[in-house]
């Protein structure tokens, strides 16, 4: 009877701890999609990322997460997500434990519910890079620790934060920037518009017919555009999207799990390659983003390696600073020391 009482009390405390919110703290929150975060919260995450980059990037020792443990679940392999997450958590003083598909079989050898409960006993935060968004949603439902999306078929919020930080650093602001997306209506553009619209970015999304963004994401994005008085348009014409743009973004046409669609996709996306000719329709100061890994058919070398326009390497590095910011805010209160950047 006493054990039952203790377990019940523990469950209640953990539930309160995870879901308690206040205006000044993100502690205990899940980070599954940027649509769950308000404008000021997104700005705070970006501000902290810049703060940490300035300080730890210059050798400062700052370990507020000393003694904390992160479980990193990877159903899908990744260079940037794994390295950025492991190095970020380590620099903050914590210990990151990588779990490959050989180490954990979500929903196979053990139910997602059971895995979530066990991982909660070992970890302070759980990052998961998965195929389906439902896996993340189920983990968040059953775990009593914050769940961070490392990517799903629907969202990639960590990449969106890195992209926005990269643009803010380059231009000195993001409000009013005209961003053109050329390619698949996938998890990257889903998160980029959900994170960028609240900050006043303008988006023109060009996708081939049949490869548009998910309907429910379009609905959410239109609501955000109306709320924040931002411009959002969808088209099947890449030249229309790029015309006068400040930023041109693309991504892989064939993600992991879509290999059987390769031939059809290469044909459908043939006119969506980012070339020097396409970039000539953008503004003279336009920059190029690609979250990597990059394939030859997606963008020409002269665009991808252009030292004046391509920000792909800065974008890749910023994955570390933005995931560091997310980990820190979900586990501890933090006030940046640098002045808040202009957004």
Automatic annotation (TrEMBL):
GO terms for cellular component: mitochondrion. NCBIfam families: orni_carb_tr, PRK00779.1. Residues 175-329 form the Aspartate/ornithine carbamoyltransferase Asp/Orn-binding domain. Belongs to the aspartate/ornithine carbamoyltransferase superfamily. OTCase family. The keyword Transferase applies. PROSITE patterns: CARBAMOYLTRANSFERASE. GO terms for molecular function: amino acid binding; ornithine carbamoyltransferase activity. GO terms for biological process: citrulline biosynthetic process; L-arginine biosynthetic process via ornithine; urea cycle. It comes from Dimorphilus gyrociliatus. Its EC number is 2.1.3.3. This is ornithine carbamoyltransferase. Residues 29-169 form the Aspartate/ornithine carbamoyltransferase carbamoyl-P binding domain. Pathway: Nitrogen metabolism; urea cycle; L-citrulline from L-ornithine and carbamoyl phosphate: step 1/1. It comes from the Eukaryota. Keywords: Amino-acid biosynthesis, Arginine biosynthesis, Transferase. InterPro entries: Asp/Orn_carbamoyltranf_P-bd, Asp/Orn_carbamoylTrfase, Asp/Orn_carbamoylTrfase_sf, Asp_carbamoyltransf_Asp/Orn-bd, Orn/put_carbamltrans. Pfam families: OTCace, OTCace_N. Homotrimer. The keyword Iron-sulfur does not apply.
């Amino acid at each position: 009877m006493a054990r039952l009482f203790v377990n019940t009390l523990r469950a209640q405390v953990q539930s309160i701890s995870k879901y308690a919110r206040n205006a000044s703290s993100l502690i205990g929150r899940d980070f599954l999609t940027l649509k769950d975060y308000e404008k000021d919260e997104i700005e705070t995450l970006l501000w902290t990322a810049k703060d940490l980059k300035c300080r730890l990037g210059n050798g400062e020792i700052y370990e507020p997460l000393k003694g904390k443990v992160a479980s990193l679940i990877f159903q899908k392999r990744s260079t940037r997500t794994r390295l950025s997450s492991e190095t970020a958590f380590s620099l903050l003083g914590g210990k990151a434990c990588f779990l490959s598909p050989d180490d954990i079989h979500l929903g196979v050898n053990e139910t997602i519910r059971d895995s979530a409960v066990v991982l909660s006993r070992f970890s302070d935060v759980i990052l998961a890079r998965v195929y389906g968004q439902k896996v993340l949603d189920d983990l968040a439902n059953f775990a009593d620790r914050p769940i961070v999306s490392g990517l799903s078929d629907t969202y990639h919020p960590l990449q969106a934060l890195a992209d926005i930080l990269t643009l803010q650093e380059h231009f000195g602001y993001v409000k009013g920037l005209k961003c053109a997306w050329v390619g698949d209506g996938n998890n990257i553009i889903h998160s980029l518009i959900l994170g960028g619209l609240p900050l006043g970015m303008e988006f023109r999304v060009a996708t081939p017919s049949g490869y548009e963004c998910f309907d429910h994401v379009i609905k959410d994005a239109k609501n955000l555009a109306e709320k924040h008085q931002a411009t959002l348009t969808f088209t099947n014409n890449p030249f229309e999207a790029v015309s006068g743009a400040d930023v041109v973004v693309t991504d892989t046409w064939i993600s992991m799990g879509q290999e059987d669609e390769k031939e059809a996709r290469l044909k459908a996306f043939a006119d969506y390659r980012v070339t020097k000719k396409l970039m000539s329709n953008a503004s003279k100061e336009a920059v190029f983003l690609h979250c990597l890994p990059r394939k030859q058919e997606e963008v020409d070398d002269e665009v991808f390696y252009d030292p004046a326009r391509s920000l792909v390497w800065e974008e890749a590095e910023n994955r570390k600073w933005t995931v560091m910011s997310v980990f820190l805010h979900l586990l501890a209160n933090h006030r940046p020391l640098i002045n808040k950047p202009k957004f």
